Amino acid sequence: MIARSQVVWTAFGAAALVFLLSPLVLVVFFSLSENANATFPPGGMTLHWYDVLFGNPDFWKALGNSAIITLCVGLVSMISGTLAAMALARSGPKVANGVIALVTMPIMLPPLVLALALATGYSSLGLPLGLATVIPSHLVFTQPFVILVVYAQMSGFNMAILDSARDLGAGPWTIFRTVILPIIRPTLIGATLMAMAVSLDDFIITYFTIGGGMTLPTMIWGMLRKALDPSINALGSLVLVATIGTSLLALRLTRYRG
Length: 258
Description:
Helix content is 79%, strand content 0%. It is mainly α. It has a single domain (63-254), classed as MetI-like fold, CATH 1.10.3720. The protein starts with a helix and ends with a helix.
């Protein structure tokens, strides 16, 4: 017989899960509803609001900006994060732990504080806000993900393999390409996708540092300020699918369970 406490905790867990997931389900649900208002009954199912969204020229501009930012952030995070993780793996645990504590500090800061600090810094330097300021701003909080995940892989790496390759005459690039990269490739790709998902979904830091441009999250915010257009649900659904899909793929590739 199942204990009463187990039933209570199972019910509590199910209720918490429904509470967390129901808003996401409703966004997708109302994006497919014929009803122009997000109310019940929803009416029939349609893709009309996606057609409206795709007919909006601002959507394509925001999508292009988001693609540029996300791809640049992913590429730079992958290169610099991997190099940093390899350097930390070769250093002692005390040095590595100290550097990781500093590197991960932007993740622990409130996004609003970090966004305000970045915007103030760009203003004091006289830099115009735009994509050129959004990309380094995103790198501040995406690089730590790559460094942490790749370092976790490299910390258990058998360095004797590298010494053997070096004794056989292999150069640094050959060692990385033929020895290190094949081993860490799934982890590296997963960490990069994780950084790209975080960058794609960011709103606060992007809002403070993009100036007059827009990305998909800032476009959603702008549309919400005007009216509750059902095409907002369509846009939110697309961002939701892209973010969750990328994150799940990244977690699977990295086998990350933290």
